[in-house]
Amino acid sequence: METISESIEKFADKIEKASSMGLKLELSQKQFDRIFVIGMGASGFMGDLLKAYLAELGSRIEVIPIKDYNIPEFMDSRSLVFVVSYSGNTEETIYAYKLAKVKAGRAIAVTSGGKLEKECMSSGTPVIKIPEGMKPRAAFPYLFFPVVNTLINSGLIKAEVNYRSIISALRIMGLREKADELSEKMLTKTPLIYASSRFYPVALRWKQAINENANTHAFCNILPEMNHNEIMAFAKETDDFMAVMLGDEADFSKIRKRISITEDITRKSCETTEIVLKGDDYLTKVFSAIYIGDLTSYLLAQKYNISPDDTQIIEGIKDKLKKTG
Q: Is 254 a catalytic residue?
């Protein structure tokens, strides 16, 4: 099993390999009103990013992530469903897939194998098979890009992914230094990560990576919503938290103003830093920021003397569920 350290080192290589996946699968039905993404954890996060990406493209197709056993009643024949489970054994995902394959117009699975692959083979559901031997959170490029390639290849979205730009941005010097600086500042503090709706999936990924790799609480929220409630928590000074603002010069002007004003407020309360997302396009900015967040969480785990590969609590929950039926 590949370690988290090895996975982070190979992040750019995985994107390069994933860039050629999903190109042979073309959907015959062109009219879909909604795309549902069924998945949990890193597999479910794929749906969050796909939703933001299609919104960035101006697509009229609504993306609805499902992170549960059940599916919405309004799923119908004009719904396209991606069933995503890296291991292929995620209980909630398999249960929801069995419901969705009856109602949806088309279902496609993304998995490395397991029970899901067997279920799909018996039901005639196409499978995008991805490499085995990784932690699910480390396989994210294989979960996301084959789906995007399928949508582009089928004419459901009009886009061209600049893989060269993404990979080049990840291989430049300086990202590790930024992550090391961030992890040092986060030490003994609870990170609070904020972003606009365009980059909320990045904030969510940072939260999840810090939770899982560093065994540390972290929380995220969206601007401008947090200006209407959570901002009041910064009325007093504290050493317990660190605010991280994820900003982009291409954000809506009023959002940029809100980030600046919010940062002035949080600095008076706790440690605060702003990360300006950089890149030639949206996905380059997203994946550069994801890489920094993943690396920060790994370095934070090292500073806490914690193994980022240990997921005993998560596996323990699964074992107890199996025993109780």
A: no
DSSP 198: G
Residue 29 has pLDDT above 70, yes or no: no
Active-site option among 30, 228, 236, 320: 228
Mean pLDDT of the chain: 94
Measured from the Cβ of residue 206, the count of other Cβ atoms closer than 10 Å reads 26
189 has catalytic annotation? no
Portions of the chain given CATH number 3.40.50.10490? 4-161, 164-303
Residue 221, classed as helix, strand or coil, is strand
Catalytic residue at 117? no
Cβ–Cβ < 8 Å for 109, 90: no
Q: 4-161 falls under which CATH superfamily?
A: Glucose-6-phosphate isomerase like protein; domain 1 (3.40.50.10490)
- Write the pLDDT tens digit of every residue in 74-106: 999 999 999 999 999 999 999 999 999 999 989
* Catalytic-labelled residue, pool 14, 135, 212, 285: 212
The CATH number of the domain covering residues in 164-303? 3.40.50.10490
What would the pLDDT profile of 167-222 be if each residue is shown by its tens digit? 999 988 678 889 999 999 999 999 999 999 999 999 999 999 999 999 999 999 99
Catalytic residue (one of 217, 257, 278, 318): 318
